[in-house]
Amino acid sequence: MGKIDTGENKLCFACGKKNEWGLKLSFKNLNGKAVTEFTPDFHYQGYKETVHGGIISTILDESMVYAALFKGKEVVTAKLSVRFKNPMFLKGKYRIEAEVINIKRNIVNTRARIFDRDRNIIAEGEGVFWTVKDIDK
Known about the structure:
The protein is mainly beta and 137 residues long. 12% of the residues lie in helices and 40% in strands. The chain has one helix spanning 53-69; strands at residues 28-30, 33-38, 73-84, 94-104, 107-115, 121-134. Strands 1-2-4-5-6-3 form a six-stranded antiparallel beta sheet, covered by helices on one side. The chain is globular.
């Protein structure tokens, strides 16, 4: 499966293509993982020349949502935990990978990581999501 069409959600801060200040993330399903790349700019700055932790958390959250979507589950976040391991600088390109750990009834457990170009982990997250509806894959 390739990309998921977010339909009317074009203004989503994380994946919406029409949100002027949004992240405009675009995910692919690669070997069962939701994968994207992100190159931050100054709009997402927190401390000097680094990306704000809230932006990093948003990226992890959205990537886990897409991992669930690729498994046929439309979900909303119930719980999100993030561990920051290295700073994300405004320069450079980052790779994000997320996967579903398990699905039990209407609960989807996931995990995600953000890597720099040398595969150092910038941040990692785990999420618990409620299924809103099952979708056709």
